[in-house]
Amino acid sequence: MQALTPAAAAIELRGIEKSFGSVHAVRGVSLRIEAGTITGIVGENGAGKSTLMSILYGLYRADAGEIWVDGRLVEMASPRDAIAHGIGMVHQHFMLIDTFTVLENMVLGAEGGVLLAGGLAAARAELARLARDYGLSVDPDARIADLSVGEQQRVEILKVLFRGARILILDEPSAVLTPQETDRLFRILQTLKERGVSVVLITHKLREIMAATDRVYVMRQGLVVVERRTADTNSEELAELMVGRKVHLDLDKAPTRWGEVLLRAEHLSLVDDRGVRLLDDVELELRAGEIVGIAGVTGNGQSELLQVLAGIRPPSGGQLTVCGHVLDAHHPGNPAQMRALGLAHVPEDRLRQGMVAAFEASETSILGYQDGPPFTRHYLLDGPAVGAHCARLMESFDVRPRSPALRSSNFSGGNQQKLVLAREIARKPKVLLVGQPTRGVDIGAIEFIHRELVKARDAGCAVLVVSVELDEILSLADRILVMFAGRIVGEVEPGRADERTLGLMMAGADAA
Amino acid sequence: MRPPRRSLSGALPVWAEVALLPLVNIALAFIVVGLIVAIIGVDPFHALRLLVVGALGSSESIGYTLYYATNFTFTGLAVAVAFHAGLFNIGGEGQAYIGGLGCGLAVLALDRWLPAWLMIPIAIAAAALFGAAWAAVPAWLQAWRGSHIVITTIMFNFVASALMVYLMVNVLIAPGSMTPQSRTFAPSGRIPAMHDALQAIGITVAPSALNLSILLALACCVAVWVFLWHTPWGYALRTMGHNPEAAVYAGTSLRRMTMLAMCLSGALAGFVGVNELMGVHHRIVLDFPAGYGFAGIAVALMGRNHPLGIALAALLFGALQQGGAELAFEIPTITREMVVVIQGLIILFSGALAHLPRPWLQILFARRAS
Amino acid sequence: MDEAFSFVFLMLASTLRVATPLVLCAMGGLFSEKGGIVDVGLEGKMLMAAFFAAATASVTGSAWAGVAAAIIAAEALALLHGLACITYRGNQVVSGVAINILAAGLTVVLGAAWFARGGQTPPLVGDQRLAPLFLPGAGDNILVYAALLSVPLTWWIIARTRFGLRLRAVGEMPLAVDAAGLSVAWLRYRAVLLCGLLAGLAGAYLSIGQNAGFSRDMTAGQGFIALAAIIFGKWRPLPALGACLIFGLLDAMAIRLQGVRVPGLGEVPVQLIQAMPYLLTMFLLAGFIGRAVAPKAAGVPYEKEH
Fold this sequence. Notes:
The structure holds 3 protein chains of 3 kinds. Chain A has helices spanning 49-56, 79-84, 102-107, 116-134, 149-162, 179-194, 206-212, 235-243, 302-309, 335-341, 350-354, 361-364, 383-396, 413-426, 443-458, 470-476, 499-506; strands spanning 9-20, 23-34, 38-42, 64-69, 72-74, 87-90, 167-171, 198-203, 215-220, 223-229, 261-271, 277-287, 291-295, 317-322, 325-328, 343-346, 376-377, 380-381, 431-435, 462-466, 479-484, 487-492.
């Protein structure tokens, strides 16, 4: 296979830029997808992979840059253009209509006439042919809602092939699949490749990149950081390239003084409405005076663990002991009760959970603590007390600008995060849960936040940190737990772990 | 006319967001009203002059303006309280109706025994209770059964109307009366008219329908303001309206907060019954809500859901109502439904089409900036 | 026996008469809601159409001109709703409420200005009204048949045509429609316009078919009953027709049962029967009679980029 012959590129992206408001999601990305190959694009969540592919598919418009298909410069104003150029996309969240049958979903947008009957009959025949050629069988008259996730994905692929696509983009295709279904998907992709279809595989799972692709691009923070032939690289190298935010922070940490167990989870499980196990038999102990870091690729149950521990979602099974109080599926806690027990929670997504964008900073500074003194006296909120409280938090956590009356949304990400953290630490909690302590936060604020977390630990607080940033976990934690597929798959001491081994555990490559 | 390709939620300077955009929206509504008036064959400026004089030209007309404004304040506040919780209560009409039933029943049951100082507070409480109860059913259905509150509140308006017709025709009708209305309230069940109250302290004004219920309306404005911005419950309610996930994080039960918000909203709407029945009609009559419940949406939208804004918007709507009546009297080709048209246009332009001028204003500001 | 037969016939005829505008309106609303645009403004569209139908028929002397005017009037409001909900992504309920209030006011204002009869149009006679087609006295004008025909037609369009498939898709998941390379806005505008067409016919029926002229607020909540029928029919044309017929029958019964003692029940309050459509719909919505699942994207403006 000739790797870099210019004429052979099925798709070439040149200098693609995209910003959403103040977030620079894709920064001048250029890459080539050779015809008849499987190209992997790998990177952490938020690295810009999906945004890039949405631009290629015409769902978003790039702010700058060029898209070339088969050597011709093209305009991708809408998915219609992408489809016309033979590009098909299987989205992470399926573009399938639950109440429709498989056939109806397949023909949507390619009905072949004003009346449905003819188009549906033709599609039925085509579906049978595709099923034969690619081994993609699915009941054409089944309703999508009745299909398994793996079958739904097959419908998505069939939909793309039905439209005659020669270039197939798959966005995190294995995120929702069982290992068996994933294996089956990769066999299908190989068949497609053999029949001349170019495949783009977006994933954060290294094992899949190694198993399925010919070439790989690594993306980080909106940039392509490296391009490799898959044969010339290995998981370890990719893991390092993918997770590395090389801000090594050497925190001066006093030795751990382990105290009593303040939070204990036993056989904790969480099953959603569809029967998917989000948390599976989680065992966890959190002692006073330690920071426990939870490492893992996003979507392996860390968010759900935080929600259950904070009382936001009741567990489906198991038992939770918080500062001596026992909670379980029959007696679930609620966030207010948890706070009363001495648990504080900095949520993963501050904008969605931890604050109200339209509120003044002073209002955000009491979220969750508004009932009772010192903020409520005689059934009334004490405005001056709230303002003074906020001003104090801003002073001690260096939140800028120091304006308690400013709308919360007008602060930068780092200052918002410091305000939320200040609010949660101010009550001197016994247990502190922190999700993504420094997501979207500038470097100066990162150091500050880390030091505050260590301070809380030294003061005897039991701290649990969930982060996708490995170096953060490595520098903060006294113990590291790795989560994968809703389970805690291993415990590592920070002194004995490096990013590479952790990265592999997180990627499910080796759950030892 | 394609709108320029700009974001519909893009930012404008704060003062433009708070003051200019709403003013442009109202101005658009009134330009359309002017066009309609011109189509009818009346000079819009002449009509405007008559309207202003009709609303504010004498102490009597000012009295009526304030009397109408009292109703608009109640329903505007009702819509706003629900709105701050992220709920759309378009059942104000029915809640006002049933609220009126509540205070009417209380008065009919007790007015012969209780003195006014005891009767009136009890009747007001009954109005609030009945209005709240009528809003509680859709609220419960939304919170526990997941049915959409917009649809259920609409349905409950009609159910309220049917219920009232039945009660008035079959149960509450005064013996011997030909029209479906109850017996007259005893004096202890009447809220004093403003001209009588002022007479008592030596001020003489022309008689009008204005009565002391307006003090209740003002008290409600203050109470709603205190509740929403100065109590922990109001704080939690607004949190839910802006960001339900954050409210859950903060430990608020969305179900209970939905019930609280709707019950308060219904109680406020129920006070229309106090103004109308205890203040003016002095008996239970049919159809007294007369669209105030729906107009409350316009009042709340125009008042930007703030009690002060609502009070001002209610004054404007009261003036329109009174001036519109005078206008209809002066110019036979214009009927007082012109006011309803204006209400509809204001809801349209400051509600559904609120973003219409935004792209143009953005261009204006972008040009000035560059 | 003869009496019983004539009673049944009269009940059927009056049920159909009452149900006709409900059916037309419900089918219109069905198109809109299937496409993801909630329409609480059916009432206003119908009212406006009724006014312009009667006004035009009275001025031109032609019932057909009246029907045309009704459609134009309803379509104008439908376009306004589309502009607010689709192009400007406004709140669909607010827009619907605005249209209802606007129509309630404007019909009276214009009527009073043009005809000076306190908001009514002059009584319509002869060719100014739609004549019964086959059964003189039963009021079976062409719009009654149009209403009956609209149901299978609506079913067929929604279930069997390309447009219907795309319409259902855009009401369930506009993002998927966008990803399939189709225009969400254009599909939704067509849905809203179809709704306007049918609501216009419903309005024309009221003022120049069933009645002989327009009177203020003559729709009297029928637009909302049609909305209830859509929900009660669980967003399917044939069950919605059934709901309209039940509601029509209730109305016909309400008129006939006035003051009549039903054995075993006593006198049934007319108002209870009138409130039945709303009460039944509430029960349905509460999940006590099966589950009514609205199109998933109904009421949500489509925003591509956040």
